[in-house]
Amino acid sequence: MSKTTAAITAVGAYVPEFVLSNKILETMVDTNDEWITSRTGIKERRILKDADKGTSYLAIKAAQNLIDKSGIDPAEIDLLIMATATPDLPVAATGVYVASQIGAVNAFAYDLQAACSSFLYGMSTAAAYIESGRYKKVLVIGADKMSSIIDYTDRTTCIIFGDGAGAALFEPNEEGLGLQDEILRSDGAGREFLKISAGGSLVPATAQTVADKQHYVFQDGKTVFKFAVTNMADVSAKIMERNNLSNEDVNWLVPHQANRRIIDATSSRMGIDDSKVLMNIHRYGNTTSATLPLLLSDFEKQFKKGDNLIFASFGGGFTWGSIYLKWAYNS
User: Fold this and answer.
1) CA 56 to CA 282: how far, in whole Å?
2) Are 170 and 130 in contact (CB under 8 A)?
């Protein structure tokens, strides 16, 4: 019997209409377009301006885009994994609400939080469910409304993050396509360098924590950059070595869009030509859980059945990893 693997069979995406450009940021904080572009590669990011809309809105839109493109009946979805660092509410899982809103009435759903690695971890989880034989259609959505946790007077973080969502449907495959291998890692030593310090059980919300801006993202940029460059590159190179893949064998590198220099360091370590490195960081900034599926959606038409894709990500916690996947269809 051939082994059952988990293949991506459809993708979808959504980004808000409002464009926050570097030029606009110049009027908000002490920064400029040249500085931002040279250090991050970001030119603009999308922001969900509606105060009454949260991450679920972005996720629903991305899921609906996937459903409309693929023609799948949402009632056939067995499981919905919501990869996000910015859930609508602290307790009621956002994924559960999203599943109900898109008509996935037969799916169970839950949220998965691993910061910027959330979607990568979600891919692994979806594959395990499908390979077990228990479920046939698993929808993984990566979505974040990062603007809800960013201090727009802090120039170290507000230049980086944007809002967006992407979705991928995973189904069983008997042709040897889909997810082939993974290396996932984490290290709690990184907890202090990229975090929101208040609002959890350790430091509950008070008037003082709000006044002290402890509910916004804090990032020690230099430390995070150092860890990201080293670890993302290491696991990406290792997964190639473990699967006997040369740089010519890899068709596409699908890297987390945190910083252009981190992406360049990863591709250089892997020996991957720039033409094979997928990037949209200049358009969206870092959308956290949404970066990988947004890349899949933006570049879907370039993928061919059998293409070798290497995914790589790094996030707060620290969390990081790489996944080797064979693309399963011609779009």
Assistant:
1) 24
2) yes
* Bridge partners, residue 79, by sequence: 108, 138
Active site includes 256?
yes
**Per-residue pLDDT reduced to its tens digit, 93-142:** 999 999 999 999 999 999 999 999 999 999 999 999 999 999 999 999 99
Determine the 3-state secondary structure of 319 from DSSP. Answer: strand
Active-site residue, from 65, 116, 231, 308: 116
Q: Where do we find the tokens 């996935």? A: 104
List the Cα angle 198/285/308 in 5-degree steps: 110
Helix (H) or strand (E) holding 169: strand 163-173
Q: 79-83 and 108-112 as β-strands: parallel, antiparallel, unpaired?
A: parallel
For the question of residue 158 being annotated catalytic, the response is no
Length of the chain: 331
190 burial level (CB within 10 Å; 0-12, 13-18, 19+): buried
Does 116 participate in catalysis according to the annotation?
yes
Catalytic residue among 65, 158, 173, 256: 256
Q: What are phi and psi of 43, to 5 degrees?
A: -110, -35
**Cβ neighbours of residue 270 under 8 Å, at least 6 residues apart?**
233, 236, 237, 240, 247, 250, 253, 310
**Radius of gyration in angstroms for the set of CA atoms belonging to the chain, rounded to a whole number:** 19
d(CA 47, CA 145): 8
Q: What angle do CA 267, 171, 251 make, to 5 degrees?
A: 25
Where b means 16+ CB within 10 Å and e means fewer, 75-92 reads eebbbbbbbbbbbbeeee
CB atoms within 10 A of CB 129: 18
Choice among 65, 231, 286, 308 that is catalytic: 286
The two structure tokens encoding residue 228: 């990201």
Above 60 in pLDDT, residue 191?
Answer: yes
